[in-house]
Amino acid sequence: MADRGGIKRKALSVTDKLNILKMYDEKSVNKNQKEIAKEMDLPVSTLRTILANKSKIESSAMTGSCKRQKIKHGKFDELEHILLEWFNQARTLNLPVNGNIVTEKAHEIAKRLNIDEFSGSGGWIDRFKKRHGIVYRQICGEAESVNDADIAAWSENILPNILKEYSSNDIFNADEFGLFFKLMPDKSLVFKREKCHGGKLSKERLSVLACTNATGSQKLRLLVIGKSKAPRCFKNVRIFPCDYVSQNRAWMTGDIFINWIKPLDLSFKKQNRNILLFVDNCPAHPTNIPLENIKLVFLPPNATAKLQPLDQGIIKVLKQKYRKKLVLRYLKEMESKNPAKKLDVLDALHYVSAAWDEITADVIKNCFRKAKFVEGDYSAVEKSCEDFQELEEFPGYAEIDEDVATSNIRSIDQIITDKIAPADVTSIDEESEDEEEDDTTPILPVVNALDYVNELRRLVASFDDADESLNHLNKIENFLYSKNIKNMKQRKIDDFLK
């Protein structure tokens, strides 16, 4: 069929339309729509239709296949929207899903929404799959199940359009990872490939939320989620190196995520900054959080292994640095004559925060480049992930917990409830049994600590290039002296009152 201008109409896929939108943005500065349509060999009416449906096209590309030629909506649009969200979170967690399971969930949603005329026939399930680009593949790891065409469409068309109004300093990525925080290198085989959805091993695990901007100039404080609400090792501790909350399985939940992102949004509002924050389609990330200065962008489902900057090496390097500290502790304990102190949650908070602080801006920039957020070479990512000689004696130790679950799948009822009302901040799930650490090391008296500082100074002074470390020790000594004087004054006042 020909248009009025005599140009043949073409069946355009979602990818084609994304390319047209990109070309239009580049050419519209100097040319009008008729001139651009002529260059693209398109009817003007087609170009105008594509421009009018820009947001729908981009949304469709992010949630389904880019090979489709039409963006169709089914008869039961609300039902399909809820079902697709459930399906995407199942894919994110690599849960096996087939046509029968999808149909069963569709009937469950129809019943919940009081849709009596829904039949869930074989024809409907086929059309649903086609509309949303769903193909059942064998589960063999997230990276292998990603559609390369969808990856290319995201990286070349959708992502540049999202990023164009933001500077690199205002582009952030946040992601959770699981951490077997107590795991020493001699126990690695027990935990190998453990997904840890619950049970005894959950006591050995923490979930950690990391967030950074694209330049590496702003690494936010880590959020650590543990099982115990008040471990004994926290007694008398007033300052923590990172934020800590508890959840009965040490999982990220929607409430915890909201409690994390709302104060962050307020902080950026005070700074008068508009932020772009990319997160994955994890079930614990609500899609409708009311935010003012943070634009929350969800990465395409089941594609974070290739599209998320933190997954391109940042988390890997963080874990390597953490495990290096455990290896050094392990080797020290082997040489020490004193009985080894068990690693506790507080130790883990200090170690993981120190590891996060040690990650350089170059590593972060390279990982954002590898995820196509920034143009340029990213070869340094591989180099930064390999430079850990201390871990060579323990192969596989650094990656031992890469498949650990950090959240649970949301039920159909939870998804429907979230669709009805915007997500709001509620109390964090703290049904923890408050299982505390078995032993607690008492805090060293200030007077004894000053003696140790003096011994440390003598040791450090025996090495070359120790100026900076000696300065740090002097600062620590001055700090401890000020606390000791304050305690002495308080004791004198107490004695006088007695």
Automatic annotation (TrEMBL):
<keyword id="KW-0539">Nucleus</keyword>
<dbReference type="InterPro" id="IPR050863">
    <property type="entry name" value="CenT-Element_Derived"/>
</dbReference>
<dbReference type="Pfam" id="PF03184">
    <property type="entry name" value="DDE_1"/>
</dbReference>
<dbReference type="InterPro" id="IPR007889">
    <property type="entry name" value="HTH_Psq"/>
</dbReference>
<dbReference type="InterPro" id="IPR036397">
    <property type="entry name" value="RNaseH_sf"/>
</dbReference>
<dbReference type="Pfam" id="PF03221">
    <property type="entry name" value="HTH_Tnp_Tc5"/>
</dbReference>
<dbReference type="Pfam" id="PF04218">
    <property type="entry name" value="CENP-B_N"/>
</dbReference>
<dbReference type="InterPro" id="IPR004875">
    <property type="entry name" value="DDE_SF_endonuclease_dom"/>
</dbReference>
<dbReference type="GO" id="GO:0003677">
    <property type="term" value="F:DNA binding"/>
</dbReference>
<protein>
    <recommendedName>
        <fullName>HTH CENPB-type domain-containing protein</fullName>
    </recommendedName>
</protein>
<feature type="domain" description="HTH CENPB-type">
    <location>
        <begin position="67"/>
        <end position="138"/>
    </location>
</feature>
<keyword id="KW-0238">DNA-binding</keyword>
<dbReference type="GO" id="GO:0005634">
    <property type="term" value="C:nucleus"/>
</dbReference>
<dbReference type="InterPro" id="IPR006600">
    <property type="entry name" value="HTH_CenpB_DNA-bd_dom"/>
</dbReference>
<dbReference type="InterPro" id="IPR009057">
    <property type="entry name" value="Homeodomain-like_sf"/>
</dbReference>
